[in-house]
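Milestone M4 deliverable, item 7.
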Amino acid sequence: MEISFYGGASEVGRSCVVIDDKRKRYMLDCGVKLDSEDEHYPAIEAREIRRVNHAILSHAHLDHSGYMPGLYAEGYRGDVLLTKPTRDLIQLLFADYLRLNKGVSPYKETDVKRMLASTKMPELGERHGDVVFHEAGHILGSVMTELNLSKSVLYTGDVNVRPSRLLEGAARNVDAEVLIIESTYGAKEDVHVPVKDASNALIKSINATFAKGGKVIVPTFAIGRGQEILFTLENFLRSGALKKTPIYLDGMITKALRIYRHNAIYLKKEVQRRILTSDDDPFKSGYYMVPETKDRSDVIALERAVILTTSGMLNGGPVLTYLKKMASEKKNKIILVGYQAKGTRGRELLEGADEITIDDQKVQVNLEIDQAPFSAHSDWRELLELVRGMRKLKKIYVMHGEADKAKQFADTLSHEFKRVSVEVPKLGETFRV
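Output delivered:
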């Protein structure tokens, strides 16, 4: 068996792994890298793409899915295995990606259609040829992939072993001889606070701003984080712990919310019960609003509001409109709830910038900047626990983490599992197993 790493090697972005087992070649994910000045797409040649028999998509986020239609533009004619929620969500993301990258996208709408026509959607735990999907706990529809080849392989994709408000944690009863694992938070100092503590910090921060007469902007990813934050706000509004206020949804969050509701069977049982057996449907709360004016002046004019909007790192989207109009007032606040990559406006704000550039204009930043530490990835300890539950392990490949995180996690694994070979792949590197 040969395993080749064409993306996601000592980096976060453009995840792409190919497993060649002589009989068949499988591609695991094929993403884009959106926050880099380097090459944005997996470093795989067209002739190698055409030799792949089956592609597998772990979840919808673009750093894992964004180049999948590009396979078809390069001549790939195989299928794509994914879950139904992932198929629904990528349609939303690809349409937005093509709109934003008009003229420079590596693929066209016809390639997206060709890919969607080639999808197969196994259920969790159901064997489909060599493949079995297991819950990954990251976002709706996310899976860990078990491959039963000449060696058994488990590819985690992005994984979260902790239950969230919407999802159960990742499956813990999966074993394999070869493990390909993410390391986004693979350093020993990476310790996530409990969801309850992160939620309380968020609500306390919002109430403090309301007490000063300000409004709160919460920039977030449209899929996954957006729904978790929304459910947190809705729960605290119902309990009275958060002052009654409209929650404005802007960007793709509303469409993604609809997809979550249509795929409720993949959510936690208690969420399903709320949707199906009562008038207490958390997806249809009376607190949720959408802006009525293109310039968002109706929202800006309000005395009090929480604005949940894309994009999560302030790279683009409606959040920039709100910042232009609200950043100069000290009474307002922006609460960052996700990772802020180097080179993004979100990172600039975290590092104390007193002005940012939006549409070639300098915008004065006087509003308060805060963080609420939500994460849909496992931390160092949780990743280690996941590996400890595996008994057949012979090889581990550590990927999907910045170079220092991947190395630190690999060092931890080497120390803990002395009989297991641990590697941190370089981009383009191939291993014989």
